[in-house]
Amino acid sequence: MNKTAFLKAGHTPTLLAAFLYFDLAFMVWVLLGPLGVQIAKDLALTPAQKGLMVATPLLTGAFLRIVMGVLVDQLKPKMAGAIGQVVVMGALFFAWQHGITSYHEVLILAGFLGVAGASFAVALPLASRWYPPEHQGTALGIAGAGNSGTVLAALFAPSLAMAYGWTNVFGLVLIPLSIVFLFYLAVAKDAPNCPPPKPLADYLAVLKDRDAWWFMFFYSVTFGGFSGLASSLTIYFNAQYGLDPKMAGFFTAGCVFAGSLVRPIGGNVADRIGGIKSLTVMYALAALFLTIVSFGMPTVWSAAAVFVGAMLALGMGNGAVFQLVPQRFRKEIGVMTGLVGMAGGVGGFYLASSLGYAKQITGSYQMGFLIFAGLALLALAGLTGVKTRWRTTWGAAHLTAARI
């Protein structure tokens, strides 16, 4: 890819603002995962309750992505993102000032943190609309690399909680959130070719297109696997290998960093070789690594190595899916980002909660991992089934400059 051509093609300040907003929103979205060991100890939670606590922001974030997708098309991306950031900061301020003293209260906070997860439906259209088809994978990969915020949460939240108490972490994260909010307001700009708002009834029309459902399923596996693991691994490393919250957070950060780092690489590779070919390899690798780790690795280091492999596959898969979506749904990118993003959050909720229930019911995490590996194989089969039709219809060479 010609770097100069890419820089000239879009609006770099907006791309940077989208990345930073997405990055810190994701940090907050999964915050309860890295804090989960300490919160569970103080509130005396069961394994299933721990799983539901870290999974709830993923579920509420999933459905709020639809709401945010509608707001993006009605109010334009910048305004929708500003509203979301204010709501999240308000919820964190309230939790910091009033404290969290029960399981139900932590679930309410988890619901509000889902608004941060809905940032996905803002950041991607905000960046995407500035770039032509041949640069979509790279632009969305860079904006989507904001999921590296999950690394920041795993890296710093457990240590800050040990030093200042986990309730005060909610106040401390307001500092970087406020700085990025001001930067976002100052430099982000809506693309001049934002499509006009559509009647609300039109948003459901894309669901009549079977390709919309395929993209939702494909992303529920790639992003669902990434976000579900990012939210669960601190608790997993603590329960499975007896690591303290701080060390479990470090191991989680290493695994999550791998998955978030390669998202833009996944988008760029998909631009070069085609999203279908890239996704085919990624699903096979993800299924393999999740199956291996389900049998319980002998040491925490070997487990981390396998999780890194899974996260690399899932992270690159995230970039590949969003190389394809704008090619197929260019005019509906706002609502499709919301729908596909919702499916990704649902996948994450399923994985995180199922790991907790598997542990409580069977005493082992194995079943949770194996079922998700099966979903990756199902996605691989589905992709194999649609690839010929995609390459001969909307992805045909005479219709697009992008590789499909």
TrEMBL record:
Gene Ontology biological process terms from the UniProt entry: nitrate assimilation
Keywords: Membrane, Nitrate assimilation, Transmembrane, Transmembrane helix
Compartments where located: Membrane
GO CC terms: membrane
One Pfam family in the UniProt entry: MFS_1
InterPro entries (alphabetical): MFS, MFS_dom, MFS_trans_sf, NO3_transporter
Record-linked Gene3D superfamilies: MFS general substrate transporter like domains (1.20.1250.20)
Alphabetized GO MF terms: nitrate transmembrane transporter activity
TM stretches of this protein: 12-32, 52-72, 79-100, 106-127, 139-157, 169-188, 213-236, 248-266, 278-297, 303-321, 333-352, 364-383
Domain Major facilitator superfamily (MFS) profile: 13-391
Family in the record: Belongs to the major facilitator superfamily. Nitrate/nitrite porter (TC 2.A.1.8) family.
Protein name per Swiss-Prot or TrEMBL: NNP family nitrate/nitrite transporter-like MFS transporter
Lineage, highest ranks first: Bacteria, Pseudomonadati, Pseudomonadota, Betaproteobacteria, Rhodocyclales
